Amino acid sequence: MASTSDIKNGLCIKYSHDIYSVVEFQHVKPGKGNAFVRTKLKSLTSGKVVDNTFPAGHRIETVRVERRNFQYLYNDDMGYHFMDEESFEQIRLEKSIIPSPDLLKEGAGVEVLFNSDDNSPLTMEMPQYIVLEITYTEPGIKGDTATNAMKPATVETGAEIRVPLFINEGDLIKIETATSSYVERAKQ
What we know:
The protein is built from no helices and 16 strands. The radius of gyration is 21 Å and the shape is flat. The chain starts with a strand and ends with a strand. Helices cover 0% and strands 54% of the residues. The chain folds into three domains: 2-62, Roll (SH3 type barrels); 65-125, CATH 2.40.50.140; 130-185, CATH 2.40.50.140. The model has no long low-confidence stretch (mean pLDDT 88). By secondary structure, the chain is mainly beta. The strands form three sheets. Strands 1-6-2-3-4-5 form a six-stranded antiparallel beta sheet, with no helix packed on it. The chain has a five-stranded antiparallel beta sheet with strand order 9-8-7-10-11, with no helix packed on it. Strands 14-13-12-15-16 form a five-stranded antiparallel beta sheet, with no helix packed on it.
């Protein structure tokens, strides 16, 4: 057990029959009344973000979480298969705990969070940015660059994202995994 003075970003706690990670917190001491801690918590099972206020000194139950590096292998009708980079042990994860499954490329490195008590996977974190090749997109029309117009493009994993008009087939682009959006053209 811990108290509200132990709250920090990244701390995992049991709250409301679920496991949450502290995304943001602020200790508040108003001029009148008792102190409290305002938090923003993200569920590790559903990804939902909730706001909560704990009174100062409130007891919270912490959860030990272990982070391990895995390599994405493939997916099939059973789920998504990953290999531990240290022990070479393979695991299968459900699509629901993967943030952007359509952006996973074979051989990509990811981080999986496990509950240390029962060794069950909680969630998977992808790198902030990934570089993928454009496999199909309509050619841009010359002179149509006055606005920030975007066009659909298909990347090598099969995902469809919006890219600027100057991007062509065969180009490498950098994609932000959290929003599945185009960032910039990558160097080849």
